[in-house]
């Protein structure tokens, strides 16, 4: 199979899947190495996204997916008879932001940052598929630790957590700060400041 044929095969796979597909799975289908597959997918993504289509290829960690451009959301909702989803509450955005910028973290860490119980919000974010349990800490009680999901990346239209905007140094010097230390994590910004970093675009 030529390089161009493999590119067309990848397009067919992504279009048929309707969800993100791991590099390893595509590698098996093309019968080439994962490294060769990643190189092929990266090249295809650059080429496809430079063209004027109504959708594009997005990478989420080690998987790829066809996604539509957000400017066509209303037309898509109309055709598919989809109701607009209720936006996240301020509390949910704060919890999600704290987890996104400090993951993996425990519920206790999030609650120390926010100063209130977060059990309900964490449960809701888990049900929405925006965060997930990622194991337990080797501490007394072995508390659960949480991190964001691929669905979080998809919702914020980023390929990895590294693409989140940085929190400017010195931001919030004139406002009350929350500073919480865990065994490995330190945050020196208020929850509202973190929310602004996530949603500014």
Total number of distinct structural domains: 2
Helix content: 40-55%
What is the number of beta strands?
A: 8
Do you know the CATH topology of the largest domain? Arc Repressor Mutant, subunit A
Radius of gyration: 20 Å
Which strand-content bin applies to the residues? 15-25%
- Helix-and-strand structural type: alpha+beta
How widely separated are the two ends?
A: 42 Å
Task: Say which CATH homologous superfamily of the largest domain is assigned.
Answer: Winged helix-like DNA-binding domain superfamily/Winged helix DNA-binding domain
CATH structural class of the largest domain: Mainly Alpha
Describe the structure.
- The chain has 201 residues and is of the alpha+beta class.
- The protein has two domains: 3-70, Orthogonal Bundle (Arc Repressor Mutant, subunit A); 90-199, Winged helix-like DNA-binding domain superfamily/Winged helix DNA-binding domain (Arc Repressor Mutant, subunit A), CATH 1.10.10.10.
- It is 46% helix and 16% strand.
- The protein has helices at 3-17, 23-30, 34-49, 73-80, 90-102, 107-114, 119-127, 150-155, 191-199; strands spanning 21-22, 55-60, 63-68, 105-106, 131-136, 144-148, 179-181, 186-188.
- A three-stranded antiparallel beta sheet has the order 1-3-2. A three-stranded antiparallel beta sheet has the order 4-6-5.
- Strand 5 and strand 6 form a beta hairpin.
- The chain is globular.
- It starts with a helix and ends with a helix.
- The model is unreliable at 171-189 and 197-201 (pLDDT under 50).
